[in-house]
Each structure stands twice: as C-alpha cells, then as structure tokens.
From TrEMBL:
Pfam families: ABM. The lineage of its organism: Bacteria, Bacillati, Actinomycetota, Actinomycetes, Pseudonocardiales. Signal peptide: none annotated. Residues 4-91 form the ABM domain. This is ABM domain-containing protein. SUPFAM superfamilies: Dimeric alpha+beta barrel (SSF54909). InterPro entries: ABM_dom (IPR007138), Dimeric_a/b-barrel (IPR011008). It comes from Actinoalloteichus hymeniacidonis.
C-alpha cells in the first residue's frame, strides 16, 4: 500500500454549469490544505446528471485532520446542495492498494 487516499463524493444535478461553479468555488477555498494533492470534477458518460468530486490525499491522517477541522464544512458548502440523494452514502474513502 502507498498510504495515499482517494475520496469520492457523488453528486447529481442536471445543471452542469451550477455544479462546475460550485466545484471551482470549493476548490479555491481548498488551496493549501495540508496533505491534499488535488481534486477533480468528473461527469458520468452514462448519466449526464451524475458527477463525482474525486480528491487525492497524501494519507488517511491528512484527510481526517482536514475533515475534523473548522474549515471542512465551509469549504465544501458550495457543493453540498448537489449531493446525490439517490445514494444512502454519497461518498467513499479508498486507500490506494496498488499503483503503477
């Protein structure tokens, strides 16, 4: 294992422009977060209302430190209205098990 972590947050909206704006706003507020290596907004090829924000973290400790911080909720607030209500748990946390 590399120790790196990927966090996937699932969103659903027919308004691509609105979620892209929210993603950019959240990403600006996440600049400089220790241990955050980057993030992406992904759009489903099969369901154009389906989106995923995928973030890459140095390790689980860095992610948990940010998640427990006072800035966590504020920095992700722009994206919260777009969470996918069809899912019981709208996110996943995965540790990299192998990579090339």
């Amino acid at each position: 294992m590399t120790g790196e972590v990927r966090v996937l947050v699932y969103h659903a909206t027919p308004d691509a422009k609105a979620i892209e704006e929210a993603y950019h706003q959240a990403s600006v507020s996440l600049r400089g977060v220790p241990g955050l290596n980057g993030n992406e907004l992904l759009r489903s090829v099969h369901d154009h209302s389906g989106f995923v924000v995928a973030s890459a973290w140095q390790d689980l400790a860095a992610f948990h430190a940010w998640e427990r911080s006072a800035t966590h909720r504020d920095s992700t607030a722009p994206l919260r209205p777009f969470r996918d209500p069809r899912l019981r748990t709208p996110f996943g946390i995965y540790q990299v098990a192998a990579a090339y």
